[in-house]
Design brief:
Blueprint (H helix, E strand, L loop, with lengths): L5 H12 L3 E5 L29 E3 L7 H6 L2 H8 L5 E5 L25 E5 L5 E5 L1 H14 L3 E5 L7 E2 L2 E2 L5 H11 L3 E3 L1 H12 L1 H5 L11 H16 L11 H4 L12
Parallel strand pairs: 1-2, 1-3, 3-6, 6-9
Antiparallel strand pairs: 4-5, 7-8
Helix pairs in contact: 4-5, 6-8
């Protein structure tokens, strides 16, 4: 007589329910990184190897919380997700102030939902823009209304060092934490988990993870960044950690000679 073990039955639940993990972010998460070639990858390309759920990567290079909203990318994502799906939202690298002429990505400075700023476009026209909090909160609440489960992740570090440690994070790292806290959402401090890994590995080796600039990683570097996200996930209260596979369970909590030359 055919029978299934409890573990086997549980392993079938994701496919039966059709749950998916969706990714929304910039080039550090997007498939193909910044599009510069095979020698640059994003951490989002490596996440699926650590999960039992399928991963759909909707991240787009060059976007910010504001432009991902303005381009209709959040709206499209919200239309596609289903109840029970997870959505990892990670922005910050392109959200900073642009200067005297708006670049279409900058957010209003500040961490309050209702703050706005007026920016000048290249043709002399003006536009009222909102804060990182505003754009991420609106997306997260719309996803929650669909029954999806947003996870707010802080941006990854640039390869910029201050002595033996990475330089301090941008304002968008605490902004992301505030959005999560204000809306009772899971927060993954991806910046900090990557920083812990990099500082254990050391600057000399980490420099090899960045063959072109201080932002976009090699395949090896991208995988370290993916591992750091999984480590953060395992240390969080997110139910997505129940779908971390054996490879994900084995990601390093401490880094040693595996990456150190």
């Amino acid at each position: 007589m055919f029978s299934l073990t409890t573990a086997a039955v549980l392993s079938l639940i994701p496919s039966i329910l059709g749950q998916t993990v969706w990714l929304a972010g910039d080039s550090t998460m997007a498939a193909g990184g910044d599009g510069a070639g095979a020698y640059l990858n994003s951490w989002g390309q490596y996440l699926s190897q650590y999960l039992t759920l399928p991963v759909t990567n909707k991240a787009v290079a060059g976007t910010s919380a504001r432009s991902f909203t303005a381009l209709g990318l959040f709206a499209s994502l919200i239309d596609e997700v289903g109840s029970g799906d997870y959505v990892v939202i990670e922005f910050g690298h392109n959200d900073g102030s642009a200067g005297s002429v708006d670049n279409g990505d900058e957010d209003a400075v500040g961490d309050a939902y209702n703050l706005t700023a007026t920016v000048t476009e290249s043709d002399g026209s003006t536009e009222v823009i909102h804060t990182f909090d505003y754009y991420i909160t609106n997306a997260a609440l719309s996803l929650t209304a669909k029954g999806a489960i947003p996870i707010i992740s802080s941006q990854t570090p640039d390869n910029i060092w201050d002595g033996d440690v990475l330089a301090a994070p941008s304002r968008f790292v605490p902004y992301a934490q505030e959005v999560a806290g204000n809306n009772s959402l899971v927060y993954i401090d991806h910046y900090d988990y990557v920083a812990q890994a990099y500082e254990a590995i050391g600057e000399t080796t980490v420099d090899t993870f960045y063959p072109v600039d201080h932002l976009h990683t090699s395949p090896t570097g991208a995988n370290v960044v993916a591992e750091a996200f999984v480590r953060g996930l395992l240390c969080s209260e997110s139910t997505l950690k129940n779908f971390v596979n054996s490879a994900g369970e084995a990601v390093p909590s401490e880094y040693s000679s595996k990456y150190i030359e």
